[in-house]
Write a structure and sequence with these properties.
- The structure holds two protein chains of two kinds.
- By secondary structure, chain A is an alpha+beta fold.
- Chain A is about 40% helix and about 25% strand.
- Chain A has eight helices and nine strands.
- Chain A has helices at about 15-25, 30-35, 55-75, 90-105, 115-130, 160-165, 175-185, 200-210; strands at about 5-10, 10-15, 45, 50-55, 85, 140-145, 150-155, 215-225, 235-250.
- In chain A, helix 4 (about 90-105) runs antiparallel to helix 5 and helix 5 packs antiparallel against helix 8 (about 200-210).
- Chain A starts with 6 loop residues before the first strand and ends with a strand.
- Chain B contains three helices and six strands, in the order E-E-H-E-E-H-E-H-E.
- Chain B has helices at about 15-30, 50-65, 75-90; strands at about 1-5, 10, 40, 45-50, 70, 95.
- In chain B, the strands form two sheets. Chain B has a four-stranded parallel β-sheet. A two-stranded parallel sheet of chain B has the order 2-4.
- In chain B, strand 5, helix 3 and strand 6 form a beta-alpha-beta unit.
- In chain B, helix 2 (about 50-65) packs across helix 3.
- Chain B is globular and about 30 Å long.
- In chain B, about 35% of the residues are buried.
- Classes of the chains: A alpha+beta, B alpha/beta.
């Protein structure tokens, strides 16, 4: 449909503002307004002030953070990761987590739960690096995206997942369902004096205390925390859209 | 001796950072007298998580036992992390005051 694209920057095909407006189903004036307001900027602005958009950016806008991250984590061939969200190393993740925490603290309505939300996101993200170091199947790192206006945080990786990680200390584990249940509910003491594998139990409690919801998927098992501060119940089900590593969406 | 944890950063979340902080503190810990208490104060820390705390607090707890005391903190992530570490280690961490 967009074969007429002639504009290319750094090998990325770009659509004109008219084509981008068609793609999103909005008016060109809307795209200009979004660009000016800073809530959806053009991918490239030519010296003549014409706005151009990459398909990837437009997909992000249409699919939302979660779907975009899920697609990145689960494509057979690795997709190009959006630079704004991709954290190839734990140092980059740390810097972005600190930035997100600063942004949470700057919102008075979110400030009281900021430390719980940031620490839970930190545990999920850091788990990806700690448990996959030296074992990344293809692309290292996490995709860490958030929209604090919509109160959503997404974390995804293309790592080995919870089952393979826990099997190192509990070889008897067979299903992703069992692995996810243990990761979120049972204290693991197999690696004393270091106690890896207990971070997700903290995540469960922190998010329940913050009244936040969590969707966490690894393999074909999907866990949901219901976001009730009085009750940190969890539900685990089987999904027909399995994930490669771990995929988490926090709504708070 | 009192350690102001904010000197290690205001977002304390990863194992790697916890290990580095512990390594940096170790020479000071070695100089603490046999009967002296080690007071851990998280005032000014914005975010703490169990991964960081497990790398820093767990080995110090093994060294200092009941001589290690934590200043109670109003920060929910600090409070919940301390509870989590207590649950994993199956022991209470002493508090000041």
């Amino acid at each position: 449909m967009y074969n007429s694209v002639k504009m290319k920057i750094n090998g990325i095909k770009l659509l004109s503002i008219g084509e981008a407006a068609d793609y999103l189903g909005v008016a060109k004036t809307t795209l200009r307004r979004w660009h000016k307001a800073g809530n959806f900027r053009a991918t490239f602005v030519s010296p003549g002030k014409h706005l151009y958009y990459s398909i990837t950016d437009l997909e992000k806008k249409t699919m939302g953070l979660a779907k975009s991250a899920f697609n990145w984590a689960n494509s057979n061939e690795p997709l190009t990761a959006p630079a704004d969200w991709y954290c190839p190393t734990s140092d980059i993740f740390k810097t972005r987590l600190e930035r997100m925490n600063g942004e949470l603290l700057a919102r008075p309505a979110q400030e009281p739960i900021a430390s719980l939300i940031a620490s839970a996101a930190g545990e999920i993200g850091n788990n990806s690096y700690d448990h996959n170091l030296g074992n990344w199947p293809d692309v290292p790192g996490t995709l860490f995206s958030y929209d604090l206006g919509k109160r959503v945080i997404v974390l995804a990786d293309r790592g080995v997942g919870i089952l393979a990680t826990l099997r190192r200390i509990k070889p008897e584990l067979i299903t992703h369902h069992e692995a996810l249940n243990i990761a979120f509910t049972k204290i693991i003491t197999g690696r004393a004096p270091e106690h890896r594998g207990n971070g997700l139990k903290y995540v469960r409690k922190a998010l329940a205390q913050a009244g936040a919801r969590l969707q966490f998927q690894s393999g074909d098992a999907q866990l949901k925390l219901l976001g009730n501060a009085d009750e940190d119940r969890l539900q685990i089900s089987t999904t027909d859209t399995p994930t490669r590593g771990c995929f988490a969406v926090i709504h708070y | 001796m009192k350690i102001e944890m904010k000197k290690f950063g205001d977002v304390l979340t990863s194992r790697q950072a916890g290990r580095e902080s512990y390594a940096a503190f170790l020479p000071t810990a070695r100089d603490i007298a046999n009967q002296e208490e080690l007071i851990i104060d998280f005032a000014g820390v914005s975010v703490l998580s169990p991964s960081w705390a497990d790398e820093f607090l767990t080995p110090l707890l093994e060294k200092f036992g009941k001589r290690l005391k934590v200043v109670p903190s109003p920060n929910p992530s600090v409070e919940l992390t301390i509870k989590t570490i207590e649950e994993v280690l199956k022991k209470k961490i002493s508090k000041t005051g």
